[in-house]
Amino acid sequence: MDSNQVQVMNSPVDLKPEDFKKIGADEKQAEVIQRESISALRDAWQRLCANKLAMTALWVLGFIVVASILGPFISEWVHGYDYYSNDLLATNESPSATHWFGTDDLGRDMFVRTWMGARISLFVGLVAACIDLIIGVIYGGTMGFFGGRIDEIMNKFSEILYSIPYLLVTILLLVVLEPSLGTIILALTITGWINMSWIVRGEIMQLKNREFVLASRSMGAGSGRLLFRHLLPNAVGPIIVTVTLSVPNAIFAEAFLSFLGLGVQAPVASLGSMINDALTGWLYYPWRMLFPATVISLTMLAFNIFGDGLRDALDPKLKK
Amino acid sequence: MEPILQVKDLHVSFQVKGGEVKAVRGMNFEVGKGETVAIVGESGSGKSVTAQTIMRLIPSPPSIIRQGEILFQGQDMLKKTNKEMEAVRGKDIGMIFQDPMTSLNPTIKVGKQITEVLIKHQKMTAAQAKREGIEMLKLVGIKNAEARFNQYPHEFSGGMRQRVMIAIALACRPSLLIADEPTTALDVTIQAQIMDVMKEMQQRLGTSIILITHDLGVVAGMCDRVIVMYAGEVVETGTKWEIFKNPQHPYTKGLLRSMPRLDQKKGEPLIPIIGTPPDLIKPPIGCPFAARCEHAMKICEQIDPSATVFSDSHSARCWDLHPMAREGGQPS
Amino acid sequence: MVRYIANKFFYMLVSLFILISATFFLMKAIPGDPFTSEKKVPDQIRERLYEQYGFDKPVYQQYLKYLGDVVQGDFGISMKKINREVSDIITGSFAPSLKLGLVAIVVAVIIGVSFGVLAALYHRRLLDNITMVLAVLGIAVPSFVIATLLQYVFASKLHWLPTMGFKGPLYYFLPVAALSAQPIAFIARLTRSSMLEVLHADYIKTAKAKGLNWIAILFRHVIRNGIMPVVTYLGPMTANIVTGSVVIEQIFGIGGIGKQFVDAISGRDYPVIMGITIFYGVLLMIARFITDIAYVFVDPRIKLSKGKEG
C-alpha cells in the first residue's frame, strides 16, 4: 500500500499542524499505581468494621460479657440479694421493681441467677474453645507440618475418634466422672479439638508448598521458625473463625447436657440448667424460661454472626 | 463475499460500583460465509464481551447493551426475545469456551451433554441423538467413541474435553461458530490439534468461525481476516497478510513485536508494550492507546482518530496515518 | 469403588468397637458397684445379684461376654426396671422416636433445599435476605428454646395444637418444627452457597449456549449439582436430630427412646445407658456410612479419585 492510495475519512474538526506535534508515550501515567497498599490484617479489620451486622453482634457480646460480670453485683448492691439467698415467701414471682427478672421456685432472684448463669455458660464455652484451640493447633500443626506417615497415622486416629458421635462420648464420660465444671469442660474437649486440628492441618499443608515458605526453607530456616513465623501466622484467619464458631457450640452442648442432668450441678446454675429447671410449669411462669433463654439465644446468635462476619472479612473471596 | 454476521456500532457497558465500564465502544465488523475471522487484543479489550453479546450470553444486569445492531442472517439479534434466542443458540450459532476443564457439567455423561442439544433443536429421538452424538465424537477425533459416549468429563483430558465441546457446538451444524480463546488453557501441542480439528470441521461443514484469541500464532495458522481490538474499539482490521506483513497501527505493530518468531535473529529481544490499558469507566476522549504510544501527538489525546482505509479489507485508526502527520508535524 | 466402600465399612466397625469397649470400661471404672448405693442389701442377695450380672468373674471375661452379647443385640437387664431387658426397652420405645426423626429429616431436606434454591435464584433480593436471616436464627437459637417458644405460642396461647403427647398427626407439628429448625437452616445455607457457585460455573454458560431454556438448565444442570453438598450433610443431620430428640421428647412429653435415655441417666441405670448409647452409636454410624456411599452415587467424580487412593 503506498500512501497515495490512502483515503482519510472526514475529520470532525479543523486540524492544525501543531496538533501533530509529537509527545511520545506518557510512561509515568501508564505505569501509575492505582491504589495505596494496605496490610492484609488492616484491610480485614476495615472490612469487619464496615459490616454493621457483625459490629452489632460484637457490641451485644460485649454487653453480655459485662453484664455477666457486673450483673450479680448490681442486684446485691441495690437490693441486697446474692446468688444463694432465697425467700420462700416470694417463689415464682413475676418481674418487679425488686426482682427485675422475677424469682424462681425457691424464691431466688432471677436477675442474679441469669447473669451468673451467663457467666458460667460463657466460661465453659470460652475455656472449652481455648483448649480445643491449643490441642487442635498442636495436633493439626504436627500433621500438616510433617505430613507423610505421621500425618497418615494421626489423621486416621482423629478420623476414627471423630466418627464416634461426640455427644455420646461426652454423656458417657460425665456419667462416670460426675459432672462439675472441670469434668464438663474435659468431656466437651475430648473430641472437640478434632475439627480445629483438621482446619489447621489443611491450612498448613496448603501454605507449606507456597513460594515464600520454600524460599525461607531454602535459606536455612529451621522447622520451628517455619512453623511459628511463616505457617501459623498465615493460618490465623481460619483459626480465629473456627474458635469464634466453636464457642456457641460448646455453650449449646453444655445446655444440652443440663437437660440430661449432666450439666453443672445445683446450686450452681448455667443458662442451660436454668432453662431445664424452668421446664416444669414454665407455661405458668414464663419469665423463668424467658430470661435465660433470651440470653443464651442472643449469645449464640452474636457469636455466630460475628464469626460469619470475621470469615467474610478475612477471606473476601468467600463472600457471596 | 456474502456476510452472515454484521455487527454495527455496538456499545456494551457494565454497571459496577464506581460507575459504568464501557467495555465495547462502537464495534463494527462483518463475517462472511465460510470465513474465519480472528478478534485479537489483550485481556479487557472487549473481545470476549463482543462474542458473548452476539450470543446474548452476557448476564444483564450488570451488562447493558447501549446501542448497535447485530445482524445474523439478516435478523437483529438484539431485538429478539429470550425465547427466540434459545432457538438460535446451539442451532445456528455454536460456541466454545476457554477452559474445557470447567465448561462441561461434571455430573452428566459426555454423551448426554451432546444429545441434549440435538434433542432440543433437531427434535431427534433419544436413539437417533445417540447415533448422531457418537458420529460427532468420531468426527472431532475421539477414538473409541461408543465407549467414550458413556463416560464422565473427568475421565477426559483437557484436549479431549475441548474436542467434546467442539462436538457439542457443531452438533446441529450451525452456520457460525464462536470460539472464545479455545486453546488458551491447553498445552501447546494440544493447541495445534484442536486448531486442526476446528479447521477440518469447518471444511466439512462450511461453518464461519469467529476466533477470539490473544495468541497471534493461532491467528496465523487459522484465520482469513483479523480484527485488532483495543480498549473496546477496533483499532485495525485487515486480511491475515495485511496485518502480519503490513501492520499500520502502533498497537498492532507492538503486538507483533512482542510475539516470538521463528525468523527472529538470535539475541534480538522481544519488545513488550509498556503500560496498561485505560480505565474504561472514564475512557480517554482521544485515542485510547495514546498514553502507551511512542508516536503519540498532541491531537491523539484530544480526538479519537477515525479510520484510514488502505484497501477494501485493510483499515486502521491512528492519527499518525493522517496525511498532516507526514506533512508538517515532525520537522525534528 | 468396592475398596472405597469396604474401607468406609471397616472404619465404621473400628469406631463401633471402640465405642462399645469405651462404654464397657467406663462403666467398670465407676467406683463401687451399682448395688452399694442402694439400701442395705443382705449379703446373700448381693451374691445372687453379682452372679446374675456376672460381676463375680474377672473383668476380661465380663468384657468378652459383653462383646458377644452386644453382637447378638443383648444389652443385659435393666437395674431399675425389674426383669426388663434393655433391648426390650429400646425396641419398645423406638417407634415414636423413629417416626418423629424420619418426619423431621424429610421435612428438613424438602424445606431446606427449597429455601436454599429460591434464595440463590433471588440472590441479594428480599427473599434471599429473609431466608438468610431466618437461617442464622435457626442455626444459632438452640432447639429447646425454639421448642418452648413454639409450645408457648401455638399450644398454650393460641390453642391451635396440642401441648404434650404423641397421639396423632396434629401432635407432630411442634416437635417436628423444633427438631428440624436447625437442619433446615443448615441445608438452606449449604444449598444456597453451592447453588450460587453452580450458577456461575462455566458449564451453565455452555448449557445456555446450547439454547436450552431456563427451566431445563435449572433442573438438569443447576439444582442437581447444587444440592450435592446436602448429601454430605445427611450424616451429621441424623446425629443432630437424634440428639435433639432427646431434649424435644422431654419437652413435649413423648415417650420415645430419648426419654428412656434421660430417665436412665438420672436413675443411673447403667445397663440401659450403655445399651442406648451403643444403639445410638450404631444408628449414627450407619447413617454416616450411608451418606459416604450415597455421595459416590451422586457425584461421579468421587468414584475414581477416592477409589484410587483408598
Automatic annotation (TrEMBL), chain B:
Record keyword ATP-binding present: yes
MF terms in GO: ATP binding
Pfam families per record: ABC_tran (PF00005), oligo_HPY (PF08352)
Keyword Cell division in annotation: no
Chief localisation class: membrane
Compartmental location: Cell membrane
UniProt KW keywords: ATP-binding, Cell membrane, Membrane, Nucleotide-binding, Transport
Domain ABC transporter: 5-256
Its membrane topology: Peripheral membrane protein
InterPro entries assigned: AAA+_ATPase, ABC_Ni/Peptide_Import, ABC_transporter-like_ATP-bd, ABC_transporter-like_CS, Oligopep_ABC_C
Record-stated family: Belongs to the ABC transporter superfamily.
Alphabetized PANTHER family for the sequence: DIPEPTIDE TRANSPORT ATP-BINDING PROTEIN DPPD (PTHR43297:SF2), OLIGOPEPTIDE TRANSPORT ATP-BINDING PROTEIN APPD (PTHR43297)
Protein name: ABC transporter ATP-binding protein
Organism for this UniProt entry: Paenibacillus brevis
TrEMBL record, chain C:
UniProt xrefs under Pfam families: BPD_transp_1 (PF00528), BPD_transp_1_N (PF19300)
Location in the cell: Cell membrane
Parts of the chain that traverse the membrane: 9-30, 100-122, 129-150, 170-188, 230-252, 272-298
Membrane topology: Multi-pass membrane protein
Main location: membrane
Family: Belongs to the binding-protein-dependent transport system permease family.
Protein name stated in the entry: ABC transporter permease
The organism of origin for this protein: Paenibacillus brevis
